[in-house]
Amino acid sequence: MSVLARVFVAAVGSGVRLVSRAFSVAFNILGRFLPFSLTAPALESGETMAQKFLTNFESVYGNSHPKFFQGSYSDALAVASQELKFLVIYIHSDYHFDTDEFCRHTMCDPSVVTTLDELFVCWAATIHSSDGFQAGLQFAATRFPFIAVLSTADRDTTVIDLHEGPISADALVTRLTNLLSEHQDMLAAANAQRTSLEHDRRLREEQDREYHALLAAEQERARRETEEAEQLQRERERVEQEERERYLAEQERKRIKELKRSALAAEPAETATGIARIAFRLPGGAKSQRRFLVDDPIQILYDYVDTLDIKFEGTGEYDLLMNMPRMLLTNKTITLREAGLVPQAMLYVQEK
Predict the structure, then answer these.
(1) pTM of the full structure
(2) Dihedral (CA of 177, 183, 188, 193) sign
């Protein structure tokens, strides 16, 4: 990194509040004259902003591009820290003259894509999103395209490189690989520290496991004894409850059947006029036959079937099916005459 860049980076780190205030005032003033808003955009979730940027980017430049992290800026920092990688930030502006050339011939170049995907975590946002706007203020972005490279190796976020304006694919790849070489010691130290902490953590965990294993064995024995006793009690209660429910359900079925049987009108005489002879084919093959008045509603057929002793396999819900012509008798308000069941008909009791 050049001396000028190092001075600039130091100024960003120490004067971010002053720069942010200055940019806020400038953006508010310029926003009155420019054809697009420079005021702070409405807040959105990191995932929403990332998805919008990706969709818009691919609609213009296609699908061959780096894997832009799908989340907020802070989430990208966390992932970079976890993976011990530098975070590359790209701030996009649709209104800058250099943006289209940069996206087509630099950002989408295969060598840049490979370098970013394999060696870095890449987060991108438009300056017109809330995350992108805040990042632009934080890093005092004044020219686009804007790229910053951040390190979280020492648990603090450190700016190790900034670039504003156009840059070729070869130059960007060279710059990024040189950064990795220059700061390899930083990543190695962070990795060594993490490895040491991980070793200590695993040692403590192993000791804790040995202690808790003995305690857990005793607790498990007591738990099993308690659970077995409770399970036996639950099983007894379940069997008793099922028996009660079966008994009550059977009594309720008998009660309803008797009510329907007593409420059912008497069967018309064989010599009566205006009668329909209806045969019923029951589940299992049994048959039943009865006479009804031709002006009785279809509901009376269901009431009659409900008085029969039928063993259903399921819930006991059923429909009456006329085979010729094939038709379900689901409208229970029409008469037998209207349903075409006169002078006689065969109906099938079809379980649902």
Answers:
(1) 0.48
(2) negative
Could you write out the three-class secondary structure of 40-78?
Answer: CCCCCCHHHHHHHHHHHHHHHHCCCCCCECCCCHHHHHH
The number of C-alpha atoms within 13 Å of 244 and in the hemisphere containing its C-beta is 6
Which pLDDT tens digit goes with each residue over 73-111? 999 999 998 888 999 999 999 989 999 999 999 999 999
Which residue from 248, 244, 250, 318 is spatially nearest to 280, judged by alpha carbons? 318
Q: Which of 214, 87, 221, 190 is nearest to 147 (CA)?
A: 87
Write out the two tokens for 130.
């809330």
SS3 at position 187? helix
Both tokens of 68, joined, read 């832009």
Tens-digit pLDDT profile for residues 63-79: 999 999 999 999 999 99
Q: How far apart are CA 301 and CA 159, in angstroms?
A: 85
Angle between helices 130-138 and 46-61 (to 10 degrees): 90
